[in-house]
Amino acid sequence: MSKKRNSLEIIHDILLTLKRNPTIKKTHLMYKTNLTYVRLNKYLDDLVGKELVAGDEQTVITPKGEQFLKEVRKMREFMDSFGL
Fold this sequence. Notes:
2 strands; 64% helix; mainly alpha; 4 helices
């Protein structure tokens, strides 16, 4: 049985997918992040409000979103160094 993702992991997955696929459509983003359409829209609305992503038809990661990804990576490396 797989472990459920928390909100931080889902947001990370969305931002990372947008960074790797700058021209991705919402439907493909939904499949790649393994979210339902409703949940994806909820997260995207939240990320737009926090200025981590921008756009309506074409969703793109913002510089603030890229900075968020860097900080999450640092946090994960720190946790891994302690075996957490």
